Structures are given as C-alpha cells and as structure tokens.
Amino acid sequence: MSSAGFSKLAGQLWPQRFKHQLALMMSFLLVLALTLLGGFTAQQQESRARAAVEAQAALLARSLAEASTNLILVGSLDGIEALALSYAAMADVRRLSIFSPQGKPLTQVVHEAGQSAQASYADPQRQRQLPAVQQPQMSLTTEGSLLTVWQPVQTDEQLLAWIQLDYDLSELHRQSHVVWRNTALMALLAVLLCYPLLMAFLRRPMESIDSARRFAVELADDVGTAPLVLEGPLEIQQLQRALNDASMLLQQHLILLTDGIQTHQAQSKQLAAQNDQLGAIFTNSPDGLLTFNRKGKVEFTNQAFLRMTGLREDEVLGQDDLGLDAKLMERAVEGCEFAGLAASFGPNRQTLTLRGEPPKVLAISGRQTTAASVSLALYVRDETQQHELDRMKSEFLTLAAHELRTPMASIFGFVELLINREFSDAKRADLLGRIHRQSKLMINILNELLDLARIEARGASEFKFEMLDLAELVTHVLSDYLPPQGRERPLFEPVMQAMPVHVDRQKMQQALLNTLSNAYKYSPGGEPVSIRLLVDEPEEGRVHYGVEIRDRGIGLSPAHLARMGERFFRADASGHIPGTGLGVSIVRELLELMGGRLQIESELGQGTCVSLWL
C-alpha cells in the first residue's frame, strides 16, 4: 500500500468526534502505561530468570570440570563418558562434550527433549575449534534457543580438557511469553472497563462544546449575531464570555486585518526569497561562519563551523568571544598557541590546531560590519589537508634524501677509490660488489616510490584480474624466491584444497614478496620465517582465503603496531635496517584495490604475523 493510500485509510478509521478521539487516546495511553509496566516487570523477571539459568549452567559446567579432572588425568574414557551421561541427564541439558586441549572429542553426549541422554560417536577424529583464552565463556546461539558454556578443565600446571555444555532456554522463553500475554489481557480488560465510564463523564461538557462549535462556525461565516448561552463548568462559562467578546471585536478588525494581511503576505514572500538565498549560501558553504550581534553574543553559526570544531549548536549560540575561546581551547592540542578570537578581527588571521587523527588545522579570520543586527563576522577555513600534504612532503623529502644519500655516498666513495688508486683484482672485485649492492638498494628505493605514485595516480585501472588458485600462486612464488645469504628458506606446508581468488597475478606476487622480504629483514638474528595458508568461512557464507607470513624477529610495540601501514613510517628508526617505510603501505593499498585487507599482529621482541586476506 502506498503512503497516500495508508494516510487515507488512517483518516477514515480515526474518529471525527472529539469525545471519541479523547476516549481513544485515553485508552491508548492506558494500554501503553500498563504495557510498559508489564513489560518492565517481564523484563526484570526474564533478566532474573536468565541470570539464574546462566548461573546454573556455569555451576553445572564447573562441577563437571572438577569431577572429571582425575578421570582425565588417568585417561579413563569410560569413566569420563559415564560422568558426562550422568550430568547430561538433567532436564535442560541438550549436549555435553569434553574435548582434549588439541580439540579432539573425548566424549559427546546428546540429550533430546523427552528422551534419555545418549553418547554420540559422530566424527570422533574431527578436531573442534576451542576458545583462545583459558577462561570460562558463555554465549547464545543465533536464534537464542541454546546457551553454550565453555569450561576449561585444568590443574595448576596445565590445561587438561575443555567442556562444552549446551543448555536449553525454551522453558525460559515460554515463561516470558506467558507474562507478556497476561500483560496484554490485563491492558485490554482495563480499557473495556474504563471506556464506558469516560464516555459518561464527557457527555455534558461535550454538549456545551458542540454548542460553542456551532456558534464559532456562524461567527466565522459572518452570520453569528445572537449572544451565545452555555451551561456547564467554569471553563465552559469562560469559553462563552470569550466567544461573545470575540464576536464583537471581529467585525471591528475585519477590514483592517484584510488590508494588513495582504501587505504582510507580499512582504513575507519577498523576505522568504531573500532568506532562502542567504540560507543556501551560508548552509552549503564549505567554510565555517559565525556572526555576533551588537551585544557581542553569537547569533548564527552554520553547520560547517560545527563540523570543523566538533561543537554543538547549543554550545555556540549565545556565547561571547571569551566563552567560545574557552570551548575551542578545550579541544585544542596541548601547547597550541592561539591569541583568541578577538585577535582574529585584526589584519592577521589566527591558526588553531584541534585534537584528532590527524590534528585539524583551522585558519580563523574576522571582519567588523556596519549592519544593524550584526557587529562581527567570523570566517573559519579547514586547512588540515594542506598542512598534512606539506608535512608528508617534508617527511618524504627528508626520508628520500636520507635513504638515497647513504647508498649514493658509498657508491661515490668506492668509485673515487677505484679511480685514484690501484687495487688487486680481489679488492677491486670486492669494491665493485659493494657498488653493485648499493646501486641495487637505490633502485629498490626508487621503485617503491614509483609504485606508490603509480597506485595513487591510476588505482586499479591497470590491474589484470583473473581467477587464480592462491595455494598454487604461493607455491610458485616460494619456488622462485631466494632468501638472504645464509638464511634458511621459509617453512611452508602446501595444501591440496583449491583456493580460488580474483586478483592480479603480478600485484599479488609483489605483495607476497614485499611481505616476505620484510619478515627476513626484521628478523636479523636469523630467526625462522614460516608461511601458512588460511581459510575463513564467516556466517554470511562467503569464503575468504589468506596467506599468513610469520617471523620471530624484533616485533613491534603497541604504539608502532597502531601506525603500521602509514606512509614513510618505519618501526626501526636506527638506520641499521634499510628501507623507506613504504613497503607495508604499498601492500595494504594493493590488497584493498584487489578487494582484500591486511591484518598485522605483533609483540615486541616476539615477532610479527602478517596476514593477506582476499
């Protein structure tokens, strides 16, 4: 049904008489009040019942964990199964499983409603995904019908097993439905009892109001001349006097009002057109705008100013310049030098930097006006992007100059030695080898800068997407990869499962090689590097494939991990490990252009794990 049809049907169903509208509204409010009260009561009861069920389920799992500890230690599978059957015999337990620390089922018991508990031997070799944290955990199924409790079985020294207990919540849901049904019935009964009483109470006042309505209609039609006579409470008598007075005054003002209305309508149309034009300009302006009235208080602000500063409209309107200064400084970065809004109305504009990621840089300037209602106008422009570009340009020039100067200085020095001095063939070969390595380093740096520039300029327009097997692609990359001299090849276990992905072969190889190179680079102590293929099947059914590259090198601190992927950021600032800080950002952007994502996990001193998901 369309919105127009729905509105027409609602108008036909809504009663026309005021007394019926009032009775219907009072009935609705009564139903709403009783429903809210009953709902609150039902919510409290359901919360207490759920808490009791969760406590019972947790206690049951904890009791089973304590009872099964010795049986697991001695490896008595029959005893474990008998113990699980005895616990699963409880009415609301639907499934009880005990898994080894590796996820292998030790025993599984199923208890269908109305039947006795039975051991289940389905998939005895299948390993189950266990919780990552060795603590009791509790969760609901998607439909909310079962409560799943995970309880670790452990001693002081080790984790012995995991207990999974599925607890039925159908009885809890049934009780909740009963409470809500009773609440609805009580509300309906209250309406049926109160409606006749309310109608009887409204009968006489409504008769007087109906008489006043007829008089007002005649008065509006310029035919009402006889005085109105009403009976009823004090309010009805006051209504009678007011209507009679209005009848006398109406004729006196009718002619004046007609002329005034016509003049006012013409002026209103003109002012509305002007206000619409000015409002569109101010509202849609990308720059912030504030106006102060003659008392020095903020009278107008547009949405751009509120968006830039993060202030609410009620925090700005009515403030003077000092009050607004204080609110802006609360959001400013520490140590920001800001002379205040008053200084912005001079010849020089002010700059204010607000907290954020990245910090927001605002340019503020003001003008004095001669308007009757506006004394000052303040303009605010967001220059964050320009400042960020300047900062990135400076960082790039500094880093590029530093990284390129080091190999260039080495090349220059070695070439100068070869020109000015005579060396043996072995020494000459050594110097030429150093020149070659430094030249290769310079080429790598320039290639990374060119790759990043090409990605920014062209995006994925040059990508050649095709459907590839990720496992086969990784195998080919590793077969051609040569690890650094003296280092072992990465540990890799190929899989037989097909892993189809839609990617650009060359770009995906580049991302894999960059990540693998970083793993060796940031484990200078010769720690092993391993590669693993991943499969993730989320609830929506779409399968994601990934490549995990793990090293056990220097790792990252939490602060450095949060900045991984930023351009020109390097975790090692000592200069001992060469690089531009662009490798991870290039990998991230390549994956995003291919519809994937980059996941990084690391711990300082323990190594880094980088996952490339597609």
From TrEMBL:
It comes from the Bacteria. One of its GO terms (molecular function) is kinase activity. Its EC number is 2.7.13.3. Residues 274-322 form the PAS domain. The keyword Metal-binding does not apply. It catalyses: ATP + protein L-histidine = ADP + protein N-phospho-L-histidine. Residues 399-614 form the Histidine kinase domain. The chain crosses the membrane at residues 20-40, 183-202. It holds the Pfam family HATPase_c. InterPro entries: HATPase_C_sf, HATPase_dom, His_kinase_dom, HisK_dim/P_dom, HisK_dim/P_sf, PAS, PAS-like_dom_sf, Sensor_HK_Regulatory. It is an enzyme of class 2 (transferase). The keyword Ubl conjugation does not apply. Keywords: Kinase, Membrane, Phosphoprotein, Transferase, Transmembrane, Transmembrane helix, Two-component regulatory system. This is histidine kinase. It comes from Roseateles oligotrophus.
